[in-house]
Design goal:
4 helices, single chain
Protein backbone atom coordinates (compact mmCIF):
# COMPACT_ATOMS: atom_id res chain seq x y z
CA UNK A 1 0.00 0.00 0.00
CA UNK A 2 1.23 3.50 -0.76
CA UNK A 3 -0.04 5.20 2.38
CA UNK A 4 1.97 8.20 3.37
CA UNK A 5 2.55 9.07 7.00
CA UNK A 6 0.23 12.04 7.01
CA UNK A 7 -0.28 14.43 9.83
CA UNK A 8 -3.68 15.19 11.35
CA UNK A 9 -3.30 18.73 10.03
CA UNK A 10 -3.13 17.46 6.44
CA UNK A 11 -6.21 15.31 7.02
CA UNK A 12 -8.04 18.29 8.53
CA UNK A 13 -7.10 20.48 5.56
CA UNK A 14 -8.28 17.85 3.08
CA UNK A 15 -11.52 17.44 5.04
CA UNK A 16 -12.25 21.17 5.10
CA UNK A 17 -11.43 21.49 1.39
CA UNK A 18 -13.71 18.57 0.54
CA UNK A 19 -16.51 20.08 2.65
CA UNK A 20 -16.26 23.54 1.09
CA UNK A 21 -16.09 22.20 -2.46
CA UNK A 22 -19.01 19.90 -1.65
CA UNK A 23 -21.05 22.94 -0.64
CA UNK A 24 -20.69 24.49 -4.11
CA UNK A 25 -20.34 21.39 -6.32
CA UNK A 26 -24.08 20.90 -6.97
CA UNK A 27 -24.24 24.36 -8.56
CA UNK A 28 -21.57 23.75 -11.19
CA UNK A 29 -24.34 23.36 -13.76
CA UNK A 30 -26.00 26.66 -12.80
CA UNK A 31 -26.61 28.99 -15.76
CA UNK A 32 -24.53 31.77 -14.15
CA UNK A 33 -21.53 29.44 -13.87
CA UNK A 34 -21.77 27.92 -17.36
CA UNK A 35 -19.34 29.27 -19.87
CA UNK A 36 -16.59 30.08 -17.38
CA UNK A 37 -14.44 27.14 -18.50
CA UNK A 38 -14.63 24.56 -21.27
CA UNK A 39 -15.59 21.81 -18.81
CA UNK A 40 -18.41 23.85 -17.27
CA UNK A 41 -19.66 24.89 -20.71
CA UNK A 42 -19.82 21.21 -21.70
CA UNK A 43 -21.48 20.31 -18.40
CA UNK A 44 -24.10 23.01 -18.93
CA UNK A 45 -25.02 21.55 -22.30
CA UNK A 46 -25.69 18.04 -21.03
CA UNK A 47 -27.38 18.86 -17.71
CA UNK A 48 -29.79 21.41 -16.35
CA UNK A 49 -29.75 23.08 -12.96
CA UNK A 50 -31.27 20.97 -10.19
CA UNK A 51 -31.10 17.96 -12.43
CA UNK A 52 -28.99 14.93 -11.64
CA UNK A 53 -26.39 16.97 -9.74
CA UNK A 54 -28.97 17.73 -7.02
CA UNK A 55 -29.54 14.16 -5.87
CA UNK A 56 -28.46 11.62 -3.30
CA UNK A 57 -26.83 9.57 -6.05
CA UNK A 58 -24.61 12.54 -6.93
CA UNK A 59 -23.70 12.81 -3.25
CA UNK A 60 -22.51 9.20 -3.29
CA UNK A 61 -20.60 9.76 -6.53
CA UNK A 62 -18.93 12.83 -5.02
CA UNK A 63 -17.96 10.73 -2.01
CA UNK A 64 -16.51 8.12 -4.35
CA UNK A 65 -14.48 10.72 -6.19
CA UNK A 66 -13.05 11.94 -2.89
CA UNK A 67 -12.46 8.37 -1.74
CA UNK A 68 -10.03 7.50 -4.53
CA UNK A 69 -7.22 9.95 -3.72
CA UNK A 70 -7.93 9.96 0.01
CA UNK A 71 -7.63 6.19 0.34
CA UNK A 72 -4.34 6.16 -1.52
CA UNK A 73 -2.73 9.16 0.15
CA UNK A 74 -4.13 9.59 3.66
CA UNK A 75 -4.02 7.31 6.66
CA UNK A 76 -7.34 8.66 7.96
CA UNK A 77 -9.12 8.66 4.60
CA UNK A 78 -12.65 8.46 5.98
CA UNK A 79 -12.74 12.04 7.26
CA UNK A 80 -12.44 13.85 3.91
CA UNK A 81 -15.05 11.50 2.44
CA UNK A 82 -17.54 12.12 5.25
CA UNK A 83 -16.90 15.86 5.36
CA UNK A 84 -17.23 16.15 1.57
CA UNK A 85 -20.48 14.20 1.47
CA UNK A 86 -21.71 16.25 4.43
CA UNK A 87 -21.00 19.48 2.54
CA UNK A 88 -22.76 18.19 -0.56
CA UNK A 89 -25.77 17.05 1.46
CA UNK A 90 -25.91 20.35 3.35
CA UNK A 91 -26.21 22.16 0.01
CA UNK A 92 -29.10 19.90 -1.00
CA UNK A 93 -30.79 20.42 2.36
CA UNK A 94 -30.40 24.20 2.12
CA UNK A 95 -31.88 24.22 -1.40
CA UNK A 96 -34.80 22.09 -0.23
CA UNK A 97 -35.51 24.31 2.78
CA UNK A 98 -35.23 27.40 0.59
CA UNK A 99 -37.79 25.98 -1.85
CA UNK A 100 -40.16 25.22 1.06
CA UNK A 101 -39.81 28.76 2.37
CA UNK A 102 -40.45 30.26 -1.08
CA UNK A 103 -43.42 27.96 -1.60
CA UNK A 104 -42.17 26.33 -4.78
CA UNK A 105 -42.64 22.64 -5.49
CA UNK A 106 -39.10 21.94 -6.67
CA UNK A 107 -37.51 19.17 -4.67
CA UNK A 108 -33.74 19.36 -4.28
CA UNK A 109 -33.29 16.08 -2.43
CA UNK A 110 -34.16 13.20 -4.74
CA UNK A 111 -32.67 9.79 -5.40
CA UNK A 112 -31.40 10.53 -8.95
Amino acid sequence: MFLLQTTPLLTLGASITAFLFGCVAPDLDHPKVNGKTVLLRWLGRITHHRGHWHSLLATLIYGGVIFLPSFLLLTHWIYPVLFGMGGYFSHLTEDDLNSIIKGTTRNAIKLW
